[in-house]
Amino acid sequence: MIYHMTAFIAGFVLDLLIGDPYCLPHPVRWIGKLIDYLTNKLLKQEYTSKKKNRNGLILVILVILATILISAAILVVSYTINSYFGIIIESVMSYQCLASKSLYTESMKVYHALKERGLEAGREAVSMIVGRDTASLDETGVTKAAVETVAENTSDGVIAPMVYLAIGGPVLGMAYKAINTMDSMIGYKNDRFYDFGKYAAKLDDIVNYIPARISALLMILSCLFLGPGYSMSNAFRIFKRDRYNHASPNSAQTESACAGALGIKLAGPASYFGKIVEKPFIGDELRAVELEDIKRANKLMLATSVVCELLCVVILVL
Question: Membrane spanning segments where (predicted)?
């Protein structure tokens, strides 16, 4: 247990310090390549809906099994060589499951692009972290998109993998990342992936159900430590009211907490592939969205991650 806890803490610290440098190999990229390979083998447009659905389930099973077996094998071999070597490898694997620094870095690129180079640069920067069309967004729209990404990914990219790391170490943490990656690659409701990606999308909803709610509650709690500009009471009020204002059962959990904490209105209609998608608003417009809200959302995300890490360590010690 002491080895696991040491690696759990070290992984979190490494993520805060290093993030995800493009020059370093990352397991999620390898998982993505496996998903691509299996998709090309298992998905043909001439297949029936039933066969696409079945093959999608086969892909989900194969990717999860491969991820678990490889992760477990790496840990077993590492600890067999030497306990200290095992701790180092487990720490690195834990760090690679988390994305707080990379989420901060990528969203702050939007902040600096808007502030220093103007709207076109901001649109280009935000297009790298959102799926919606960005060409017609104004400065408020770009800022909102960045804030929403930080809020939603506080759960998907930080708290959820942290919870699974605490429960089952890097093996479970990597399995979660595999599920999350499958959803992001094939969990679309379009002509190509509607049947094939159903199991991936549903499984992602399931594994994120509890972590998303934990994330939102910890986000609300974190307002206590951030001082002026963050309202714990309003965060809880908006969370209770708007936490299901999304097609996903999980995405609006943290978005509602963040919107309430900052006193702004998020979400609403957005353009995807040239078509306007009507989505409900989240939050009340107690004030206008401003560029500094990207910084504020990141402070809330980082505070939430620290609170979650500390709580997990306390639980592991007990």
Answer: 57-81, 158-179, 210-231
